[in-house]
Amino acid sequence: MTLPSTDPLPDGPLDPKRIQAVALRYEKERKTPIVVAKGSGAIAEEILRRAKEAGVFVHSSRELIDLLMKVDLDARIPPPLYAAVAEVLAWVYRQDEEAGTGPEGRPAG
After folding, report:
1. For residues 9 and 49, what is the distance between their CA atoms, to the nearest angstrom?
2. What does CATH list as the number for 2-103?
């Protein structure tokens, strides 16, 4: 799952330097998602490009991105973020079901 965030400029297009993205990995056996990639600008664009190539659904939440950017790489998300991340994971699973795919865009079944 990848979460992008952008800040629009008042009278113009998005500022590429303000694009941020955080990628999470969730495996049932670990029980807690971990931050596997994060960054802004060109790094965020690369995270989003790779997510698109892999067929990973992308969800956008400015507030959640701001909080997840503070989490160390390869660290589990902290307990105060469990509810917010669970909502995003539920959204991702619904998207997977609607698309007829499993995790990370693989065919279900």
Report:
1. 22
2. 3.40.1690.10
Q: Which long-range contacts (CB under 8 A, 24 or more apart) does 9-16 make?
A: 16/41, 16/42, 16/45
Host H or E run for residue 93: helix 82-99
| Distance of alpha carbon 76 from alpha carbon 96, whole angstroms | 23
Structural domain spans, the chain: 2-103
Which segments of the chain have a pLDDT < 70?
Answer: 1-17, 101-109
pLDDT digits (tens, 9 = 90+) for 42-58: 999 999 999 999 988 88
Q: Name the β-bridge partners of 62.
A: none
Residue 17 dihedral angles phi and psi, to the nearest 5°: -70, -20
Q: What pTM was computed for the model?
A: 0.72
